[in-house]
Amino acid sequence: MNEQNQREIIRELVAADPRYKEEAYCFVREGLDYTVHELNEVPQEESHHVRGWELTAGIRDYAIRQFGPISLRVLRHWGINSSDDIGEIVYNMIDVQLLGKTDEDDKQDFHRVFDFERAFRDPFLPTAQLEGDTD
User: Which helix (H) or strand (E) holds 129?
Assistant: First the structure.
């Protein structure tokens, strides 16, 4: 399926489920590619299945690489406020066959993977604040 067809399907998804912007779907797809090929160091020509919690962590890392300290603001603008939202987007994409899943996959794999606020705030705090030091 070419990119133009994918974009059209994503527009239809947004029309059917307006909780998430088109950019959110595209970003989750990019985050999946990042997770598979960068974090797992899988060669481009090979495929590797990732679980929901792995994908969520990969998307977190990808967002921080792409947007730095404003990652949370960008994701929220697109309607992504929790790891559960990532799961909703993934399963919307599975429903229209933009993504695949195995019998072991479950939407619950995305449930409360981490505290979204802390996950995007803490990497940018000084080390002393993370450790609870007040000096």
Answer: helix 127-131
Q: Is 88 exposed, middle or buried (0-12, 13-18, 19+ CB in 10 A)?
A: buried
Task: Quickly tell me which residue has 């960008």 as its tokens.
Answer: 74
pLDDT tens track for 3-60:
889 999 999 999 999 999 999 999 999 999 999 887 556 555 555 678 899 999 999 9
CA distances from 106 to 55, 63, 73, 80, 110 (A): 13, 23, 27, 19, 8
Burial class of residue 9 (count of CB atoms within 10 Å of its CB; 0-12, 13-18, 19+): middle
**Token pair recorded at residue 86:** 């990532």
Question: Residue ranges of the domains in the chain?
Answer: 3-123
Handedness of CA 135, 115, 73, 23 (dihedral sign): positive
The pTM score is 0.85
